[in-house]
Amino acid sequence: MGAQDARGLRTGLGVSETGPRLRDAEGEKRAPEASDAGERAAGEQNAPVRVAVLFVGNKLMLDDGVGPAAYEEMLERYELPPNVDAFDLGCLSLDMIEAVRDYDVLLTVDAVDGTGAQPGTVLRFAPDAMARHAGATASLHDLKLVDLFDAALLLGYEAEGLCLGVQVENASPAVATIGLTPKVHEALPLLVDTVAGELARIGAPPKRRL
Fold this sequence. Notes:
Layout: E1 4-5, E2 8-9, E3 22-24, H1 34-45, E4 51-56, H2 66-77, E5 78-79, E6 84-90, H3 97-102, E7 105-112, E8 122-125, H4 127-131, H5 145-154, E9 160-167, H6 182-186, H7 188-201, E10 207-208
Parallel strand pairs: 3-8, 4-6, 4-7, 7-9
Antiparallel strand pairs: 1-2, 5-10, 8-9
Helix pairs in contact: 2-7
């Protein structure tokens, strides 16, 4: 099944009916093409678009660790171009405010919940779309990308943003647990390939390792 939103099916990454799936956040408009922002930034500065990929999550809390797991998988499977930097953040914080100044595009990869999708579903959000969800219905972390952008804007910093999330099955184990539930683990290749696809669309394609 390809990319899916509330209106039905669209052509997208091919996956089986029972396997991982990619969709836009239900009820939200599809995010503007990040390539538009990348092309504008590159054209204005006559330089390659600068991209930061922020992998967010706590690897000690089962599915909340999908961001760090995707970070490791990304670096294992792909070689990033010089204008792309990947960060294994733990939790997104205002410490990253300088990134809004230093990069043209910020892409976050995070665990999400309360979306109504099956565990392991990969979803694409615009930052403000994720912010309209309250509490555990979007990012599992208190600070969302749009909050970071809002704070940076007060300092005169601007960047484009996009959020990729994976619907969790269990991100609150009774005790600290490293690993992912089976459906979320199965979604890792799709998630990483989706990140690679987004990078390619903004003019910064990674190279698949042999």
